[in-house]
Specification:
By secondary structure, the chain is α/β, with parallel strands linked by helices. It contains twelve helices and six strands.
Length: 279
Amino acid sequence: MVNRKELNPEASPHAAFGAKLRVVREGLGLTQDQLGNEMGYTCGHISSVETGRKVPTLRFARQLDQALRTAHAEDSFERQWREIRHGSLLEGATEYMGCEARAAEIRLYEVGVIPGLLQTQEYAVALAEGAVQRGAITPEQADERVRMITERQVVLSRKSPPTVFVVLDESCIRRPVGGSKIMKEQAELLREFAARANTMLQVAPFEMGVRRPFNLPIYILTMPDRGLMSYAESSQQGHLERETSAVLPVLGAYHQLQAEAPSQAASVAMISKLRKGIS
């Protein structure tokens, strides 16, 4: 081909996306015109993405998966797009968040910080800015983290929202993040979350000691087909467990945690008392 540009997938994440697009497209015997017509894009748009001149959008990646029959593949274009966009996340986190958006039930246990699904924007910004100051992430990654949290929270207001169970270690509500105004607003959001019909909020107090079954954050999803998956991470590693049989013991431990923790009413009272004491 006279005008065929050689691609270098190692040049950048977007270049790798474009190079993969060309390989899959040509493997199916499609021209850029044919693919563009099927997706509703021009030939020039397809060419610009393939050569890395145009950054793909989430909508574009999803349409690619439909047109090229890669929607359910482990290396789908949507998954690659999310890995590009959330490059500072640990392994498994992007796939977890994609599943979280479709889950029928969400169960989570968090230590040290309020989980992203329940963070106010100001709280999220304060955390991100702290990570930048420590040199853990770049300012651009900080902005992306805050946007990502806003996107994740959409699941709570979707047409058929999931049932959400949350257990917070007491350290989550006691650790100062930002100023007193931010902490008061965050406490108020937790109380509002607990008041919803499809949620349950509990605080695991320090005195639970060894009766607490988890030492690290854990997230458990029940999908619409009743399949289970869990996600756990440390400071350096993330692990997504997709086998229901392996998640069942974790789910059992979570039920134990809920049984041992104070009721929602007692937990909300603890949060309210703490809020009043913030100066």
